[in-house]
Amino acid sequence: MANSRIRSALRRFRRSSAAASGPEARYMPFGYKLMLSYMLLTLVHVILFGYLANWIFVDSVRKQTSENVRAALRQMKDNIEYRMKDTVRLSDMIYYDETVASRLRRLNEGYYGYESVTQYLEPKFDSVIKATNHRIWLVVYLRNETLPEIYSFYNDSDPLAYAGKSYNMLYLKRIADKSWYQDFPPERYGVTMQWQQIDRDAEFGNISLLRRLVDPASFNRQLDFGFMRLTVKLTEMFETVSPDFGEGTSVRIEDGKGQILFERGAWTNDRIAQAGESHYLTITEPFQDLDWKLVASIPKEWVEKDAKKVKVLTAVIGSASFLLFLCVNGFLSRYFSKRVSRIVRVLDSFRHGSFHKRIRFKGRDEFSTISQSINAMAEHIDGLIQQVYVASIKKKEAELESLQAQINPHFLYNTLSSISLLAKFGQVEQLHRMVSNLALFYRLSLNEGRTIIPVANELEQAKAYLDIQKVKYTDRLDVLFEIDPDLLRYEMVKLILQPFLENVLKHAWTGDRVHIRVAGRRIGDDIEFRIIDDGVGMTPDTLRRISQLDDGEEAGYGIRNVHQRIELHYGKPYGVSIYSKLGIGTSVTIRLPCVPRTAPYVSSRAELDAGRRPEEA
């Protein structure tokens, strides 16, 4: 049988050699591949250089622009904060004046109130609004209604535009229902103040500083006796805000809610939103003690205008470099391709079975060394291929036959002993059944020397083995087969299931009973058999040694036998895996490929029971 396999393998080798000598497949010459690889490397070099040069330049311009703009914004912010602090300074003149506090909170009608207003309050308010060069409107709201109100008529116009510098003194009840007054935060002496656009400030382009008036001499400084409002022009407060960063730039001041308080520039915020913020470089500078921020939007097109020059220069340099490399590549690829082509022609003749051609190169370089090696190799390659190929096939056949010959003979001895006992005690029916099963088992095992048998015969062999063992163990052994009928269309290596069934009966007993389940199903293009028992199981150390195919583990002998035969026949992806837990049982999984059946069936159990001879099958 081994000789016939070797002869068939050699015939397949000759047929493949003859097929290789047919029309040559189309391929791309080495010179073209070398040329294309050089061109590709050149293009990658040029593109990468251009991209990096452009990216570095644009990134440098952006960073430089950002630093310049940020420095300018910081200067603008400092000027704005200075003017805001100047307004706060004006409010401090009233906020910290104890005399103003005592005059405004004292409830005295008549001459005292008149004196307070004319002799002290009006001069004080007048000195406050004259202490700055900017237009300012001061309003003081009082809880004390014994003092008279002082106000002017502005004809429904901007108080700052109408009067320039003026002050009013009104009762607090005029603003008691205003949301900006009701939502004013709790008082922290000397700290609590807010800049807001209230009433018609937004309409007139104004902004107001709001502060409570509390008694600095009082123990509880949370008690207020009035409210103060200082209104200034946004254009004067933010006079230094100027978008001098280039064409199309915009600078704006936003509050904590994202609302724009002031904006200057060629592009308003609405037009920036329409064009898309991704087209602008946005730089932000926050205020120190407020939730405001100074925002500058600069068109990226203006920032990166010089990058176009870099792109053009990069394209020119890249094109020149590409043409130069192309000429050099053409020469080199032609030089090497000629030599490689000669080597390919000789090797191609070897592929077609002709080992008579030789190759020579002048000089003492790598190509001459290659030619000498090829010439030396051609002297021995034909005979070497035959020897190695035949030897490898013989070795594989010998390994398969050696592994198959290692089936444990103790089973035969034990069965014959059981038959002798049955004959001695006159149990003819059981004796007949055991002899029939033994005959079927060994007929399926021998299988006329064939290694491959149908799946159906392998299952019959396993059932015959278990039927023999049932005579010995009677009702102590319980077996269940769950086999997918679709598996009967395939074939497999023989004697795969029996060694695991033998291991169960030898090592798995716990108590006086054992249950075995043999399951088979198809998973994709593979067949999976599982042999499951409820026996004593294995310790993790024993399972590890068996799974690693440790030669020192007695129970692993049959497992190694099966696993090696499966690997030798089908390859590494297939074989045996084991899962076991002490006190619960063991599950053995055997995975084989789905190979359509070509092997003939061996006579079935029914034919043997009918008394047919093997040669009649």
Automatic annotation (TrEMBL):
Q: Which GO terms describe its molecular function?
A: protein histidine kinase activity
Q: What class of enzyme is it?
A: transferase
- List the membrane topology term(s): Multi-pass membrane protein
Keywords assigned: ATP-binding, Cell membrane, Kinase, Membrane, Nucleotide-binding, Phosphoprotein, Transferase, Transmembrane, Transmembrane helix, Two-component regulatory system
Q: Which residues form the Histidine kinase domain?
A: 496-596
**The HAMP domain, residue ranges:** 334-386
Q: What is its EC number?
A: 2.7.13.3
The record, for Gene3D superfamilies, names: 6.10.340.10, Histidine kinase-like ATPase, C-terminal domain
> Which CDD domains does the UniProt record give?
HAMP
Query: What InterPro entries does its record include?
Result: Bact_2-comp_sensor_kinase, HAMP_dom, HATPase_C_sf, HATPase_dom, His_kinase_dom, Sig_transdc_His_kin-like_C, Sig_transdc_His_kin_internal
Q: Which reaction does it catalyse?
A: ATP + protein L-histidine = ADP + protein N-phospho-L-histidine
Top-level taxonomic group: Bacteria
**Transmembrane stretches, start-end:** 36-58, 312-332
Q: What is this protein called?
A: histidine kinase
Organism, scientific name: Paenibacillus ehimensis
The taxonomy runs: Bacteria, Bacillati, Bacillota, Bacilli, Bacillales
